[in-house]
Amino acid sequence: MLKGIDPLLGPDLLRVLAAMGHGDEIAVVDANFPAEANARRLVRLDGITATRAAEAILSLLPLDDFVDAPAAVMAVVGDPDAEPSIVADFRQIAQRAHGADVQFERVERFAFYERARQAFAVAATGERRLYGNLILKKGVL
Q: If you classify domain 35-137 with CATH, what class do you get?
């Protein structure tokens, strides 16, 4: 146990977050996401919601201030302008951690899969709400 670090952040996830550089991305994905097939580095967080994982990750991960949208979510198939309630939750978590408004990009489903494949890592959660997928771009301190 470490002081001041969320206990959800185990050694595998801490190593990934520390190894990421400026501009690298981590995808936090739901239980339906094909994580094994789309991850260069996979960290399993089974039984943890995506919102709880995002909260823990954002307690340490600075967001990139040099891009318009340092966060991305998967667009709803057939209704890309819709915002599922979990996306509103992600937005609140990111803004609270970042201390300012955070712009979110909506990414079409297959483009999201491709972006997750290119991400530094994928954190696979047990999130059961649909569209519980989030990509975060690391910034600098």
A: alpha beta
